[in-house]
């Protein structure tokens, strides 16, 4: 039984009607490959001076890049490898099974593929994902190894994300318990991505350009590469580092920091030869949490996570794409 989603059948009409279109996504040019600012979290346990330097470096990266990579992050390699093996196993299941509405007993639409609302080449994506809201994890079969591995990973990732969010808050005067009060291990989600080899890498993306809807994201990726971010108006490729996790600022931290930290547009380019895997942990508050700039005058209206999500759903339906924070500018 075939494991691949029917990308070609789904996209055939768009591909054919765009065959002569001049405006193709710009995925074919050469890209600079850059190393993200590297933060060694072991420095937090050295003297006061090293600790302060480390926190400042993290803040500076969040201001200038919106992205950084962390080493000595406390998530064991063995656990990351196990998560990847479980991820491979789940995506190797037949497409018909993955697309069943109660796949793994999770909510509908936990398994996603391509961009169901794509209307043009600009928003075609060649990837599949399992998007798990961590409050749903208890619905999964208890004896499932995927479930226990995700639970183990989510606990570590939540601890790490909260620490990172708190260190970043120190530079801005946000109160120390802000994240503890508004986020819980079950308010976040884990998105496991698989990018199968794509026969049309110059025509579409692995994931279309977007910003993340959360405070911050922790990404574990393999060594294939393909993640790119927008920097000074140009797309640059992130060089994979086998020892590091990638961290990026999401829309909520940009709003909370009043635009000081940047939620940067990123994408994944499609690869003709090699399959790629990544897992993104989205550190989110509860739905009721109201996000308000930490300094005045505010750039953004205050909004709840629920309102933000509803706005995205409306925009995605209308345009095939989320609009995001610019909707909430004052
Ligand atoms: O695959 C990656 O490296 C990034 C994935 C991503 O941006 C996302 O899932 O939001
Ligand atoms: Fe993302």
Automatic annotation (TrEMBL):
InterPro entries: DIOX_N, IPNS-like_FE2OG_OXY, IPNS-like_sf, Iron_ascorbate_oxido_reductase, Oxoglu/Fe-dep_dioxygenase_dom. The keyword Cytoplasm does not apply. Residues 186-285 form the Fe2OG dioxygenase domain. One of its GO terms (molecular function) is metal ion binding. Residues 143-170 form a coiled coil. Keywords: Coiled coil, Iron, Metal-binding, Oxidoreductase. The keyword Iron applies. Belongs to the iron/ascorbate-dependent oxidoreductase family. This is Fe2OG dioxygenase domain-containing protein.
């Amino acid at each position: 039984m075939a494991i691949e989603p029917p990308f070609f059948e789904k996209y055939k009409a768009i591909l054919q009607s765009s065959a002569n279109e001049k405006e193709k996504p710009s995925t074919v040019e050469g890209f600079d490959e850059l190393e993200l600012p590297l933060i060694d979290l072991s420095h937090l346990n050295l003297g006061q001076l090293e600790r302060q330097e480390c926190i400042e470096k993290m803040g500076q990266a969040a201001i200038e890049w919106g992205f950084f990579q962390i080493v000595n992050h406390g998530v064991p390699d063995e656990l990351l490898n196990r998560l990847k093996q479980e991820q491979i196993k789940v995506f190797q299941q037949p497409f018909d099974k993955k697309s069943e509405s109660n796949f793994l007993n999770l909510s509908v639409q936990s398994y996603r593929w391509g961009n169901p609302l794509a209307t043009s080449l600009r928003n075609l994506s060649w990837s599949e994902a399992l998007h798990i809201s961590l409050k749903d994890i208890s619905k999964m079969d208890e004896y499932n190894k995927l479930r226990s591995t995700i639970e183990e990973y989510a606990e570590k990732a939540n601890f790490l994300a909260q620490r990172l969010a708190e260190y970043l808050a120190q530079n801005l005067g946000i109160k120390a318990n802000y994240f503890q009060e508004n986020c819980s291990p079950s308010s976040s989600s884990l998105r496991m991505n698989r990018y199968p080899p794509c026969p049309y890498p110059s025509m579409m993306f692995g994931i279309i350009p977007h910003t993340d809807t959360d405070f911050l994201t922790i990404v574990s990726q393999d060594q294939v590469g393909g993640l790119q971010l927008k920097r000074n108006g140009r797309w640059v490729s992130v060089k994979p580092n086998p020892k590091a996790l990638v961290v990026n600022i999401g829309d909520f931290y940009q709003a909370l920091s009043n635009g000081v930290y940047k939620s940067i547009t990123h994408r994944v380019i499609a690869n003709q030869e090699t399959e790629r895997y990544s897992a993104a942990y989205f550190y989110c508050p509860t739905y009721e949490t109201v996000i308000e700039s930490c300094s005045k005058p505010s750039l953004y209206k205050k909004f709840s996570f629920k309102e933000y999500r509803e706005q995205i759903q409306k925009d995605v339906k209308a345009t095939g794409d989320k609009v995001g924070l610019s909707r909430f500018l004052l």
